[in-house]
Amino acid sequence: MSSLAQEESRLISENVTWGQRKRFSDGKVQMPYKRFLGYEKGENGRPVIVETEATVVRLINRLYLEGKTSAEICNHLEQRHIPSPGGSSKWSKTTLDSILTNEKYKGDALLQKKFTVDFLRKKKKTNEGEVPQHYLEGSHPAIIVPE
Question: The whole model's pTM is what?
Answer without folding.
Answer: 0.75
